[in-house]
């Protein structure tokens, strides 16, 4: 199976994700985690890889903070859109744009990076473990991974709340090929297991949109956004709410010493 390329629906992707409270809330919670992660990594400019970074919303903000950012995406259209915005914001000189699949990014990097952003990509990748291994290989020892993935458990909960019982019974197959519904929703236990098997030390888990998508009165997503964000922030880093998030954001570190080769 081929991994998803958004060239054909880039405008729809931007409008339906970034242009909604879904995207606004996702970015707000994500940046709470990223700000804390950056604070722990010190004051120096970091070499950041945004793997599958799309329109560059997160990458551009990283560049605005003074970090050196490489953005790669398989979509030519997404890369072009990211470059336009980066130029408008005056940070394109602090960024490097690569049109390639995440699986091919290693050949485009001159040295290991300090921080990898891998957001809302894993659920579009047919073979997740090899991709995570590639990301491991381009991260320096002591570096950090910021991984956000589409949660299969949250998808099930969402469909049950909506009363889609028959759809859940048959395993929630994807109905249309060219939609924004991810091809491969991921079970959290699988993702945590893959990371630990490769060697990462998971340091944080955050549920993203743990309440937003389940609201019966959808107008409250917009009308009560500030109150909703406050409550999402209060509960999103504790169970059971982490596991109910439509996405889960995981932070992980690559140890200074590769413990897999240290048998003493």
Automatic annotation (TrEMBL):
<keyword id="KW-0489">Methyltransferase</keyword>
<dbReference type="InterPro" id="IPR029063">
    <property type="entry name" value="SAM-dependent_MTases_sf"/>
</dbReference>
<feature type="binding site">
    <location>
        <position position="26"/>
    </location>
    <ligand>
        <name>S-adenosyl-L-methionine</name>
    </ligand>
</feature>
<dbReference type="Pfam" id="PF13847">
    <property type="entry name" value="Methyltransf_31"/>
</dbReference>
<feature type="binding site">
    <location>
        <position position="73"/>
    </location>
    <ligand>
        <name>S-adenosyl-L-methionine</name>
    </ligand>
</feature>
<feature type="binding site">
    <location>
        <position position="119"/>
    </location>
    <ligand>
        <name>S-adenosyl-L-methionine</name>
    </ligand>
</feature>
<keyword id="KW-0808">Transferase</keyword>
<comment type="similarity">
    <text>Belongs to the class I-like SAM-binding methyltransferase superfamily. CmoM family.</text>
</comment>
<dbReference type="GO" id="GO:0008168">
    <property type="term" value="F:methyltransferase activity"/>
</dbReference>
<keyword id="KW-0949">S-adenosyl-L-methionine</keyword>
<keyword id="KW-0819">tRNA processing</keyword>
<feature type="binding site">
    <location>
        <begin position="52"/>
        <end position="53"/>
    </location>
    <ligand>
        <name>S-adenosyl-L-methionine</name>
    </ligand>
</feature>
<protein>
    <recommendedName>
        <fullName>tRNA 5-carboxymethoxyuridine methyltransferase</fullName>
        <ecNumber>2.1.1.-</ecNumber>
    </recommendedName>
</protein>
<dbReference type="InterPro" id="IPR033664">
    <property type="entry name" value="Cmo5U_methylTrfase"/>
</dbReference>
<dbReference type="GO" id="GO:0032259">
    <property type="term" value="P:methylation"/>
</dbReference>
<dbReference type="InterPro" id="IPR025714">
    <property type="entry name" value="Methyltranfer_dom"/>
</dbReference>
<comment type="function">
    <text>Catalyzes the methylation of 5-carboxymethoxyuridine (cmo5U) to form 5-methoxycarbonylmethoxyuridine (mcmo5U) at position 34 in tRNAs.</text>
</comment>
<feature type="domain" description="Methyltransferase">
    <location>
        <begin position="46"/>
        <end position="165"/>
    </location>
</feature>
